[in-house]
Amino acid sequence: MNDARARVLGTRRVYEGKLLRIDLEEVELPGGDRTEVEIIRHPGAAAVLPFLDEQRVVLIRQYRHAVGGFIVEVPAGKLDRPGEAPEECVQRELREETGYRCRRLVPLGRILTTPGFTDEVIWLYEAHDLEIGASACEPGEEIEVFEATWEQALVLLRRGEIIDAKSVACLAHAALRRGVAAFP
C-alpha cells in the first residue's frame, strides 16, 4: 500500500454552523489526478457505556430529527469547549444526559465515523463506579434514560435495535473486553 498523501492545492470554507463546518478542497491525488473534495469538519466527540455494575448498563432513547425519531444510544456529545479533552467531554455528557457521574473511565478506543467525507473522531469509554445526580439536558434534547442488563443490551444490538454507529462500536468494544462475541 502506498502511504503517499494528496497535495492540497486550495481550500474554501463553504459553510460554518454551530455543529460543523464544510470545506471544499482542491487536491492532487498521489497518482496525479486532481479533484474537489467536500469535507465536513467536526470538533470530535466522546461516547460512554455506563455500567451500574458488571451486569447492568445505562442506555438512552434520544430523539434524532435527522433520522425522524427516537433511537437507542449510549450517552455522547461533541467536544464543545476549546482544548476540551475527550475524558472531560464524556464526563460532562454523562452528567447532562443521564444525571450520573463516574469515578472511573476505561478507554475503549476511537472511531472515525465516516472518513470518506468527515474528519470526525469519536473516543469511546466505559464508565464505572457511578453516582446518581440530576440530569441537565441541553435545550432541544429529548432523552429518556433507562437501565438494561448487559445481556439485554447485547440482544438489542444483535436484533438491530441499536444501529447508531458510536453505540454499536461502544458495545462491541465492551463485549470484546469481556471475551463475549457481540455478534455470534
Description:
19% of the residues lie in helices and 46% in strands. It is an alpha+beta fold and 184 residues long. It folds into two domains: 7-41, no CATH class; 45-177, Nucleoside Triphosphate Pyrophosphohydrolase (Alpha-Beta Complex), CATH 3.90.79. Strands 4, 5, 6, 7, 8, 9 and 10 form a seven-stranded mixed sheet that branches. Strand 4 and strand 5 (56-64) form a beta hairpin. The protein is globular, with a radius of gyration of 18 Å. It starts with 6 loop residues before the first strand and ends in a 7-residue tail after the last helix. The model has no long low-confidence stretch (mean pLDDT 94).
Briefly characterize the structure:
With 184 residues, the chain is an alpha+beta fold. The chain has 3 helices and 10 strands; from the N terminus they run βββββββαβββαα. The strands form 2 sheets. Strands 4, 5, 6, 7, 8, 9 and 10 form a 7-stranded mixed sheet that branches. Strands 1-2-3 form a 3-stranded antiparallel sheet, with no helix packed on it.
**The CATH C-level class name of the largest domain:** Alpha Beta
Which series of helices and strands comes N to C? EEEEEEEHEEEHH
Largest sheet: 7 strands, mixed
Question: The CATH topology of the largest domain, please?
Answer: Nucleoside Triphosphate Pyrophosphohydrolase
